UniProtKB/TrEMBL annotation:
This is Tetratricopeptide repeat protein. Pfam families: ARM_TT21 (PF25058), TPR_16 (PF13432). Keywords: TPR repeat. GO terms for cellular component: transcription factor TFIIIC complex. The keyword Ribosomal protein does not apply. It comes from Nicoliella spurrieriana.
Length: 419
């Protein structure tokens, strides 16, 4: 004769929820405890937490020493965001209980979801001490170290499991995990030994990136490009790939291809100031100065606080003799930002070329506070102050210059004129 529990499950499977509720109540009153426990396990796995909880509570009343029921109730409480209740159940499970290790694992998971990683770690270490041969605990501890980027601690644990022949646990590929861990720890030679065992088709986007990045660090640029391109084909919106794919292409002297990659990356993530910088630098390298200015300006508009982009655009404008454009650009920038020594130098050069001698002098003096050991600056500034008849300022700069560049006959001759 079928039990009420069996009939309840059949009705649930058929989608007859009202009849299921009636049969469930009969099961609670009439079925044997072992049958009820099996029903609770089945209902929990199906997501019927309220009914499973009723059974576990009923059984705990009859069997107060059965800590496995407390552990199950704690897990349900966590699922229902009743964390304090869960901790109450877990605190009642003592170290001499058969369910103690399970309670530590549940607590560790709870603390991890709350961001209390150190507490979670201590729970797992206690569980490992209580059950040192339990692979699930070793794996959980490795995963925690991995998630907190303590890769050097995670690696030995993954390696321990792999040496036991365990390559997959809880749907996680451990060969993949240890490869990524080695890569993040900067141990690229070890990383690639694991990562290349995984077929590209089986890799997640993150693992493809780590594999390609590892090849790049090892100087295997063509392999890096192949994996980065596969990642781009399978996950075009993965923004991190573009700077590194471009870098790999530059390494094999395919600058124009690299620039197209940077452009493509900016289409995916226009707010990536690093990409604007890389694109501008590369355009400048291949002689496309107008294109370089476009990238620096566009990047600056998107990231106006990025000093690197500001400096690169200002430097380019000065190099190209666009002194008025540089002054106009920096005036706007300096309305909301502090002066940088290089920007002061650029302003000094620009004002000097525009015959605004007063502002040129002011900015040379500002820049001199930081460039007192830079021969190029000292020479330029000294010649400027000589041209406007400021001998004391000139001599101060010139004396320091010839200390650094004693073989510059022209500047030594100028200095001798004033001795």
């Amino acid at each position: 004769m079928d039990s009420y529990s069996q009939k309840a499950l059949e009705l649930l499977s058929a989608g007859k929820l009202t009849q299921f509720d009636e049969q469930f109540k009969l099961a609670l009153k009439n079925d044997a405890d072992d049958m009820l426990f099996s029903l609770a396990e089945e209902l929990y796995s199906l997501g019927f937490l309220s009914q499973a909880k009723q059974i576990y509570r009923q059984l705990l009343t009859k069997y107060p020493d059965e800590d496995s029921l407390r552990a199950n109730l704690a897990e349900i409480a966590i699922s229902e965001d009743q964390n304090d209740l869960a901790l109450n159940y877990l605190s009642e499970i003592k170290p001499d209980s058969d369910s103690y290790v399970q309670s530590l694992m549940i607590a560790a998971d709870l603390y991890q979801t709350q961001g209390l990683f150190e507490v979670s770690k201590q729970k797992l270490l206690a569980a490992q001490k209580a059950a040192p041969d339990e692979d699930v605990i070793t794996f959980a501890l490795a995963e925690l170290y991995f998630s907190t980027r303590e890769f050097d601690r995670a690696i030995p644990l993954y390696l321990h499991l792999i040496k036991k022949g365990i390559t997959t646990l809880s749907a996680v590929n451990l060969v993949e995990r240890i490869g990524v861990a080695y890569a993040n720890a900067g141990r690229f030679g070890h990383a690639i030994g694991y990562l290349k065992q995984i077929k590209l088709i089986d890799m997640t986007s993150d693992v493809k990136f780590e594999t390609a990045f590892t090849y790049l660090q090892l100087g295997e640029y063509q392999k890096a490009i192949e994996v980065f391109e596969d990642l781009r084909d399978s996950d075009h919106d993965y923004p991190t790939l573009y700077p590194y794919l471009g870098e790999a292409l530059v390494k094999i002297h395919k600058e124009k291809d690299a620039l197209r990659v940077f452009q493509e990356g900016l289409g995916v993530d226009e707010y990536n100031e690093s990409l604007w910088t890389k694109a501008g630098d590369l355009a400048l390298k291949i002689g496309e100065k107008e294109q370089a200015e476009h990238y620096y300006r566009s990047g600056h508009r998107i990231a106006p606080d990025d000093l690197t982009l500001t400096l690169k655009l200002s430097n380019l404008l000065v190099q190209e003799g666009q002194f008025e454009n540089n002054v106009s650009f920096l005036k706007q920038y300096l309305e909301t930002h502090a002066i940088d020594p290089q920007l002061a130098w650029n302003l000094a050069t620009s004002y000097s070329e525009m015959d605004n001698l007063k502002l040129a002098a002011t900015n040379y003096q500002t820049a001199a506070k930081s460039f007192g050991d830079n021969p190029d600056f000292l020479r330029e500034a000294a010649l400027f102050f000589r041209s406007i008849g400021n001998v004391s300022e000139m001599l101060q700069l010139l004396n320091r210059y010839v200390e650094l560049e004693p073989t510059d006959g022209e500047m030594m001759q100028i200095l001798n004129e004033y001795r």
